[in-house]
Amino acid sequence: MARTAKTRKTPAKSQQQGGPSDDSDFALHSLQEAFEKAKVYDASEDEMMEFYRQMLLIRRFEERAGQLYGLGLIGGFCHLYIGQEAVAIGLQSALDNDKDSVITGYRDHGHMLAYGIDPKVIMAELTGRQAGISKGKGGSMHMFSTEHKFYGGHGIVGAQVALGGGLALAHKYNEDGGLCLAYFGDGAANQGQVYETFNMASLWKLPIVFVIENNQYAMGTSTARSSAETEFYRRGTAFRIPGMDVNGMDVLEVRAAAEVAFKHVREGNGPVLMELNTYRYRGHSMSDPAKYRTREEVQDVREHKDPIEGLKKVLVDKGKSEDDLKAIDKEIRKIVSEAADFSENSPEPEASELYTDVLVEEY
Ligand SMILES: Cc1ncc(C[n+]2csc(CCOP(=O)(O)OP(=O)(O)O)c2C)c(N)n1
Ligand SMILES: [Mg+2]
User: What separation in Å is there between the alpha carbon of 110 and the centre of ligand 2?
Assistant: First the structure.
């Protein structure tokens, strides 16, 4: 039988006569359009200073974690978030911490710090101490704080997306008014379970914001080498999930995008997919010699797109003095040093801790 052309439900874009209301695909583009109209979050000076402080805390914390790893004080894997700070801070500053949940992959220290969780218990987790947020048994990749509705910290690439779908289903089922922020990488975006989750989340209009942190690489593989569609914000289109294309190196832009996306989700319209374009300065993990990219590429981003330097410039233009900013830097260095000292000097878990928090089922 000869194939007949599918009847289009909507006229091709070029044939459209009327405005957006005539276009049944408008909903898919509307969030990006709303965001494009106001791309910079109108932050107060205090908010900007707080964003600066929080991003700097992540940067200095991660640098110190890298050093402790080098000294052999951190075992196992350790994935640093340096370069991506504006993503976690811009998004999480827009959350309702009493209601909303967050889930991410193994590159999770920044997301914990963005919650305002004590850096000491995060660093102590990295060094495997009893005082760590997962009692020293989770390490870098498996941090949790159910108190903050932070559900990990996951080592299986993409698995957190399906779990995030479950968290969103719980928000809806319990009618608690919360949404789930589910972060994953550009590499994870090629996992099958991501699309199963997209389908169900859209079908059931679950309150979830899918966040692709596109840091341009999955281990040593660039997006261009691994992905047929590198415009990741389009990946939800087949499931009628609106996409947003966001500069993840600009905290004010990230926050502006979060305002639009979260409002849409909170109003019961189902999921949104945000692509946050960002960059990791360090290797994939501490054992990555990063031979798949040039030093110049990294240097170029550091010089021209750094999220902390970018916000610093905005603050200086607004009249903040170098001394004000230096005082913050000093305060952060002190906090990080104290966290490092604490993590080195606090005791390791008792051997009996091996038997706690273990799920054993009887059959
Ligand atoms: C299911 C699964 N496959 C492979 C791996 C090995 N692995 C760990 S991280 C990673 C790359 C993921 O990259 P991306 O999603 O872009 O996140 P990023 O590390 O850049 O934050 C891979 C393949 C894994 N942990 N889980
Ligand atoms: Mg990546």
Answer: 15
End-to-end CA distance of the chain: 55
Distance CA 250, CA 18 (A): 35
Task: Work out which ligand 1 atom sits closest to the CA atom of 79.
Answer: 19
Residue appearing with tokens 């569609």: 229
pLDDT, tens digit (0-9, with 9 covering 90-100), for 270-311: 999 999 999 999 999 998 988 999 999 999 999 999 999 999
User: For the ranges 2-11, 139-148, 248-257, 273-282, which has the lowest average pLDDT?
Assistant: 2-11
Ligand 1 centre to CA of 219 (Å) is 7
What size, in residues, is the chain? 363
How are beta strands 217-218 and 221-222 bridged, if at all? Answer: antiparallel
Counting ligands in written order, the one closest to the CA of 285 is 1
Neighbours of 231 (CB within 10 A): 13
d(Cα 154, Cα 140) in Å, to the nearest integer?
10
| Residue pLDDT, tens place only, 110-162 | 999 999 999 999 999 999 999 999 999 999 999 999 999 999 999 999 999 99
325 pocket-lining for ligand 1 (C-beta < 6 Å): no
Q: Could you give all domains of the chain from N- to C-terminal order, each with its CATH number?
A: 38-347 (3.40.50.970)
CA distance 299 to 66: 19
Q: What is the token pair recorded at 179?
A: 């949404």
- For the stretch 305-361, pLDDT in tens is 999 999 999 999 999 999 999 999 999 999 999 999 999 999 999 999 989 988 887
219 lines ligand 1 (CB under 6 A): yes
Question: What would the two tokens of residue 217 be?
Answer: 């690489």
From the CB of 88, is ligand 1 less than 6 Å away?
Answer: no
